Amino acid sequence: MHTDTFTGETNAEKLKVKQAREAESVGKRVLLQGWVRTRRDSKGGFSFIDLSDGSSLKGVQVIAENKLPNYESEILKCGIGSSVEVIGTIVASPAKGQLTEVKAESIKILGYSDPDKYPLQKKETSMEYLRTIAHLRTRTMTFGAVFRIRNEICRSIHNFFQSRGFMYVQTPIITSSDCEGAGQMFRVTTLDLANIPWKEGADNKREIDFEQDFFGRATSLTVSGQLEGEIFATSFGSVYTFGPTFRAENSNTTRHLAEFWMIEPEVAFCDLEGDMDLAEDFLKSIFQDVLANCADDMAFLNEKVDNTIIETLKGIVESNFERLTYTEAVEILRNSGEKFDFPVEWGIDLQTEHERYLTERKFKKPVILTDYPRGIKAFYMKLNPDGKTVRAMDVLVPKIGEIIGGSQREDDAETLESRMKECGLNPDEYWWYLDLRRYGTVPHAGFGLGLERCVQFVTGMSNIRDVIPFPRAPKSCDF
Ligand code: ATP
Ligand code: MN
How far does residue 438's CA lie from ligand 2's centre (Å)? Predict the structure, then answer.
């Protein structure tokens, strides 16, 4: 059920290769292990079983003749969802839909599945319902396609960085610093919540005594591996992280998860221009790999979920992203004549509706916005000479809005320290981060790509909860 990669040009060529490969396989004896997708019984005295092992969109058609000793007693009882082991021979298929099929010489039922009780029935397939059976939704065509594509994206990401000499670094998941200073973190504690140790804090207010906690201080799940990534970048040059990230933001949207995966490259001797070039090359390489290696899955989703995805990805791979400053974008939005829910003025954080206007209506392609107001961006972004803006860049794509957020980092120790104070952070707690600027500072830059936003964009799935195996969101943590 594996489809090999193919690097040729046209569909006709592709088909030729496929046909040749399948013709070669005719006559081979095979062992198949998988789950029954459908069983159709023909009056001619045999059954068709569509068998899938999840390795590709298409299953294998198995022909079970009534000559088989367990035909009546077992095969006619094995319904959708049953697991079976087939030994048989590949033969040319007379029917449409596949070039070859497997004629069974024996079929062993490993596990029955009662078709009347099987939760995956054709009538109940809303995404909301499937989320409640996340242990079985992975057997559907749609989720099969989504998760094979997610896997291809992960492979492509590692390939991209490894082939360019980036070091893969594993930054900690439990942290005592808050990267964004936004306080949307999940606490990590072993304190007895029914018996919290209190101590007297400032202004006679009681405070939790974290000295008694596991780590002897307050700790949380990380919101980003960037700060630690910078340590490695200033030793190894080019590095990237790829790991889980946690945000306790109470935003019940179709684009936010409480637990998601983030890829964060960090590059020394690199400015914002280099950072944007890297981000653009990176996304294009992912999209190219998906188009080349997941053709069947993409064609399926293009038909069933969103009929623009293939065309959109092809268009992106072949053209350049639009690049403009935040200030220019604000001008465009203000002069657009559009009525936004959130009115636009210089200094506001752009909302998804604004980002979507720019990518979908104005430029009709990905847009990189740079040089945002300092007031709405994190303390570590490099201050521009104008004193008002920072060297930030966000990559926006149609439908999703922000897919990547990045910046050139502040490399001047004094400026960084004053930015920390301005953002209400205590520089003493970031002593090691400031040290990176004190001992051999270099210009450096990086960004974060949300893996699920990327999978969502590529697959056209409308809710981010349907592109991660087991979504975590406010009031929802099943499986
Ligand atoms: P947004 O404004 O969309 O909430 P952000 O600006 O808070 O995102 P960053 O801190 O810049 O996000 O994180 C880098 C990337 O991580 C984002 O561009 C996005 O792709 C992804 N991301 C951020 N928050 C989430 C989330 N809650 N769920 C899934 N992906 C996220
Ligand atoms: Mn961002």
Answer: 27
Determine the atom of ligand 1 nearest the C-alpha atom of 403: 20
Whether the per-residue pLDDT at 2 is higher than 50: the answer is no
Yes or no: say if 126 and 86 are a contact pair by the CB < 8 Å rule.
Answer: no
- What class, spelled out in words, does domain 11-118 have in CATH? mainly beta
Give the dihedral sign, CA 221/223/227/232. positive
- Which residue type is seen at 25? S
446 lines ligand 1 (CB under 6 A): no
CATH superfamily assigned to domain 141-185+223-466: Bira Bifunctional Protein; Domain 2 (3.30.930.10)
Q: Which atom of ligand 1 is nearest to the CA of 406?
A: 11
- Band (pLDDT 50/70/90 cuts) for residue 4 is very low
Q: Stretch 170-195: mean pLDDT, rounded?
A: 85
The reported pLDDT for the residue numbered 168 is 98
Task: List the chain domain ranges.
Answer: 11-118, 141-185+223-466
Q: Whose CA is nearest to atom 4 of ligand 1?
A: 256
Give the integer Cα–Cα distance in Å for 473 and 13. 45
